[in-house]
Amino acid sequence: ATYDDTQLATLLANKRLNDYKQALIMRDVQNIYSIGSTNWIIEQSEINRLALVDIPVVDEYLAALNSQVVIQDMIKIKEAA
Question: What is the per-residue pLDDT across 59-75, written as a single tens digit (0 to 9) for each?
Answer without folding.
Answer: 777 787 788 888 888 99
